[in-house]
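[SOLVED] Need 3D model of a two-part complex

Original post:
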Amino acid sequence: MTDNSTLDMDLRTCLDRQAARLPASVAEAVANPRLATVARHPSRGRVWRSGRARVAAVVTAVVTGAGIYLGVGVIDTSTPAFASWTSSPEPVPATAVGGIEAACGQSRAPAILDARGNSVYAVFGTSGGDRVDCLTTLPGHRTDRGLRGAWITHSTAMPTTPGPAEPIVLLSVKVPEGNAVHDGRFIWVSGRVSPGITRVTVQTSGGPVRATVRDGMFAAWWPGNDSDTASIVGYDTAGRAVSTLSDLTCGATTINPRVTTTGHPPQGGCPN
Amino acid sequence: MRQLQRAEPRDRGQPAVPKPKPEPEPELFDAFFIRERTRAVRLAWLLTRSEAAAEDVAQDAFLAVHRRFEELDSPSAYLSRVVVNRSRRWHARRARDADMATRLAAASGGDGDDAGPDYLLDVIYTLPFRQRVAIVGRYWAGWSEADIAAALGCRPGTVKSLTSRALTRLRNEIER
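Solution:
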């Protein structure tokens, strides 16, 4: 007969071992600040990081009265995730904006939209001054494999306009995560640019990605892997690269991109 | 040793009023997140035995905590309760979608099958969900009966009964 103390000990050992067996990649998916939305210059002096929040099921169900999980049964695992993605942004029809707001659970117009293929990345300002980042399906398009509903993070306030020493301010970086079957791996970046910057390109491991630039903001997203590196380059009207943010995916406890700006010493960078 | 409080100067014969203790600095959400993240995802992992579900449950739980963070007396307890509730919902949904889940798992070798062989653990997973929470709470999380009761939304007496039944069942299964 198994005595109480043996059973107690076996249970503790078994559960401890099982808890430790959780792959680091899964724990990291929640824990890694690189997955988080980071405001580098929060106007309220408070930085918090939100992990991924897949609230699409709830949001979509509430907004449209439809259950998002109905789509799970038709996942096409033979097609690469985000196969419709394009390296240059595509225009978003004005009629699609309301659907994007609904899918992202927002009632305000988006501050910027970056559409590529079937999916669109949207950044919203909230009534409380915070920011919501969201990747969802462009209304009227097929759902990309790799995207169920929407990925949404809610984070701190929009930063102020960048100064001359730092013409690009990074608002948000989200690096890959998720289940390989259900979720494609993607990266989004967004931020503010000074008025002198009219074009922004993200140099990724897979090639350049031209960002959407609008009203002093930029945004881009691309299918990516955890090992990807990326840098953001801002160009002025004459086509000169005036500022570069690099080391976006450094494995530090905080995202601290290296900023190189023409006429100014480099700032930041990943800690060694 | 009792610390003496400095008396404030008396004013118009009013009695001295002890100086109020300064309010403790409220914890910021980011500090809470960093402190609790590993525990939350591991708890979800032990309750669901699915990496993807653990990740989703923990993230959703943090989002739920964030929505009410300012008003919560004990965000940690609330987080535990949400993780338990979301894990229970995950099991319920999984049971409803059993056919679909089977097909996905067959295609992916994924959800629910990623724990590896462990006989005692397998037995734990045969327990009804509330009994499993009682066992995981007591033997892994180090919760008291009151903590488990809060996480399950039941009375401590119920926890005693759940734990007792779970241990009996585990013992029977092991000795079978």
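Edit: Chain A is about 15% helix and 30% strand.
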